[in-house]
Amino acid sequence: DYFAHNGYGGTVTAAQLKGTVNFGQGGQTCTNGTLTYDSASGGYFCYTPPSGFKALSTANLSAPTIAQPNNYFNAVIYTGTGAALNVLNSSTSPVTIAGFRPDIVWLKDRTSANAHGIFDSSRTVYPAWASNGSAAEGGGTTALLSFLSNGFSLGASTTVNTSGDSYVAWMWKESATAGFDIVTYTGTGAAQTIAHSLGVAPKMIIVKDRGAANDGAVYHASNTAAPETDYLLLDSTAATADDDTYWNDTAPTASVFSVKSNADVNTSGNNYVAYLFAEVDGFSKFGSYTGNAAADGPFVYTGFKPRFVLAKRTDSTGDWFMIDSARANTTNPIIPTVWADLADAEQLSTAQADFNANGFKLRSTGGINTSTATYIYAAFADIPFKYSASTASLTFVQAVAFLLGMTF
Predict the structure, then answer these.
(1) What does each C-alpha distance from 223 to 257, 259, 289, 400 come to in angstroms?
(2) Which of 29, 235, 322, 395 is exposed most, by the fewest CB atoms within 10 A?
């Protein structure tokens, strides 16, 4: 929506054009007296707003499904010790949060070129698989030893706990409320449907063959106009490809997703794990954008300040970019980058994006923002937009911020 202002007709001076627009934020003098607060609209006005009209204020935004995203997702950093180590997603600064028991832990060595490690709670022993490789899962005795009530415990594995190396861990809690489900199934080699418990159709699905050398297959609802006909691979820079043997050219529903005969998703007798993600207001967003190769890149609205963004070019080759605010410098832009398809150490030279109160804005002139290139993304929240005026970064209460109001 747009607004316009015209104070005079004909040729005017800059001084004559000067005016003030009030969208409820107050701070101006009324021609008919003092601005007064109108409780129905939630703003300060000279005249009572018409019924149903609201001030442009965060207080008037609808409450998100999840007010506290770090109860279900978090990104944390830690330093390896080479010995038993507990990594917690709880905190006592600036406020105390209890943390949560994660159901997926995705680890990456930031210092050295070590493989990614993806662990989930669907088994009692916790082998890992790597997004940057096709090998079957393994390493369950010295890597992640247990899921804790507020984090996870590591052994002495040099992939996830090298002494002195810096690491990042992304953690998700399985919950229909948070739109995340872990499903295990056995392949049949023929078209089949797999039940899930999200209650809504997933926006993104990652499938991995646990016992054989296969790439992680990805379904994304914004991949193309008919995403059920296409697939991407985590261990690949390849563009999206059309192949009905992955999702059987059938879109997932609120209760099932479909696979056909491709070895990546449905070899007869093989065991698979699938991670399903649905979109949840104020917590997660899955979509697409088009790059412009400018430092003033496109803005992608999510409805929250992101904590983590995964992005992949789909119309041509491109890496899977992973950026988050746990590793970031204290101010925008977000610079530290790792890639889901690469074992490379963290990149610290290229600005990628700003994480703003209601989305992210691309700042790179290539890579994650190539001119006219099409990208898909998955984003998870740090702070919902409604609570973006909160003074504490880890606990969210309503603090009013007016969204628009200016003098010109």
Answers:
(1) 16, 17, 10, 37
(2) 29
Q: Check if the beta carbon of residue 179 is closer than 8 Å to that of residue 247.
A: no
Average pLDDT, the chain: 88
What is the tens place of the pLDDT at every residue in 52-85? 777 776 777 778 889 999 999 999 999 999 999 9
Q: Three-state DSSP class for 70?
A: helix
Distances (CA, A) of 245 to 5, 196, 237, 339: 57, 20, 20, 27
Entry pTM: 0.88
pLDDT of residue 62: 77
Residue ranges of alpha helices (H) inside 117-189 are none
Distance of CA 395 to the CA centre of its chain: 19
**Which are the contacts of 184, defined by CB distance < 8 A and separation ≥ 6?**
122, 271, 272, 273, 274
Q: Is 68 exposed, middle or buried (0-12, 13-18, 19+ CB in 10 A)?
A: middle
β-bridge mates for residue 299, sequence order: 361
What CA–CA distances, in Å, run from 260 to 10, 24, 188, 267? 68, 55, 9, 9
